[in-house]
Amino acid sequence: MRSRERSLLVVVMLGINAAALAEAGPERQDKAGKRIVISIPHRKLALIEDGQVARLYDAAVGAAKSPSPVGDFAIVTRIPNPTYYTPGKVTPPGKSNPLGPRWVGLTLKGYGIHGTNVPSSIGKAASHGCIRMRNRDVEELFELVSVGDRVELHGELDDDVLSLFGELRRPAAPTKPTQPKQLTPSVLMALTVAAR
After folding, report:
1. Fewer Cβ within 10 Å of end Cβ, the chain: N or C?
2. 89-91 and 112-114 as β-strands: parallel, antiparallel, unpaired?
3. Any idea which residues carry the catalytic annotation?
4. pLDDT in tens, 32-43
5. Digit-coded pLDDT (tens) for 147-168
6. Domain parsing of the chain, residue ranges
7. Are 38 and 152 contacting, i.e. CB atoms less than 8 angstroms apart?
């Protein structure tokens, strides 16, 4: 088989595999005992193994103009050193790649869990809808998950989400800096005399 035919065969097989996983639904993935739960309000991702939190990571979620999807999905691809494609531009693997060093694709086409070239976005609503992680964290998670593992994205604080992530704590609003009190001319004169 020639290289081009082999490549086409791999693409077709991946498509069939993704379709089969989508049809299988969450029941198929539960048997493995491993799932990813993402709390969009907390901006966190938990890896659950046999009903217990095995790992907990900070994440970036979709911005207001491009929110992360909500629902039950499954992992359909795992790609190390992905290439980023956007209309008119292809970014190869490397430091400038917005996907970072790993891509974990979901049954919802175009969405996944990946690294980032903007680590300051972690913990914020800043992505185009995907779940961003620190590069070292996504590299670790990548080794712990498999195609077929279930991924749940939660947009509400239900009992399950609260039991995994706790109460939502937002940082306190920054306090306004206090203005220095204006010193009257007599106080200024007294300070000047005292300094001599």
Report:
1. C
2. unpaired
3. 114, 130
4. 579 999 999 999
5. 999 999 999 999 989 999 988 8
6. 3-195
7. yes
